[in-house]
Amino acid sequence: xxxxxxxxxxxxxxxxxxxxxxxxxxxxxxxxxxxxxxxxxxxxxxxxxxxxxxxxxxxxxxxxxxxxxxxxxxxxxxxxxxxxxxxxxxxxxxxxxxxxxxxxxxxxxxxxxxxxxxxxxxxxxxxxxxxxxxxxxxxxxxxxxxxxxxxxxxxxxxxxxxxxxxxxxxxxxxxxxxxxxxxxxxxxxxxxxxxxxxxxxxxxxxxxxxxxxxxxxxxxxxxxxxxxxxxxxxxxxxxxxxxxxxxxxxxxxxxxxxxxxxxxxxxxxxxx
Length: 272
Description:
- The protein has 272 residues and is mainly alpha-helical.
- 52% of the residues lie in helices and 5% in strands.
- The radius of gyration is 44 Å and the shape is elongated.
- It starts with a helix and ends in a 27-residue tail after the last helix.
C-alpha cells in the first residue's frame, strides 16, 4: 500500500465532507503517525492522552466526539476498551482506493456490531441442588427419615444430624459471647460528673479531679501519650499517687526576726 496515496485519499475524502473540522484532521494525523510507528500494521493500540497531546486537543469531550464521528464516517474503525489498563484498538483502512475501502469498512463494521449484539451462549452446567432445609439463624440440617434405609441407619443418621445442630448452636453462642466481651472492652471516656465522686471518695480535691479530666481530655485519653486507656479509675489512682509525690512543701511566711541575728533596738542614726 502506498501511504502517500493513502493520505491523498484521506484529504480528497475530507474535502468532499463539509462536516470535517480541523480537530478531525489533527486526530486522524495523530492516528496516522501512531500507525507509522507500528510499521503500518493494523490494529494499533492507542492511549487517549497520547493522541490528545499529538493532536493538540485539550478537551476530552472534543476528542471523544471527533473520534466517534471519524468512526461513523468510515475514516477509521474505533474499538474502545472501556478499561484504563487496556489500550483502545483502532484500525486505519486503506483510503487510497475509495471503492475498496468502503467495502472493507462496511464489512468490518457489520462484523463488529454483529459480535456486540449476539449473546454469548456458554454451555454452563450447574451442579444439582440438594434439597436441604436451612434456618436463617444457624445452618441446621433436616432430620427427615428416609424409608428406604433400615431403622438402625436411620437412627444413627438422625443422632448425627442432631449432634451437628448442637455444635452449630454452641459455635453461634460462643461467637455471640465473644462479641459481647468485645463490646464491653470498648473504652468510653468518663465525664467530669463521673470523675468527681470517685476523687471525693479517695479524699482528693475537686480541683485535682478537674486537672485529671482536663489533662486526659486534651491528649485523647492516652496513657503515656501512646496507648489507649482501658480503665480510667486505675489511671485516677495512679494520678493521685503521683500527685502526692510531687506536692511542693508549703513555705513558712512567719519569719522570726531573731533568726537574722540582729538586735531589735537598732539605732539607724549611728554612723557605720
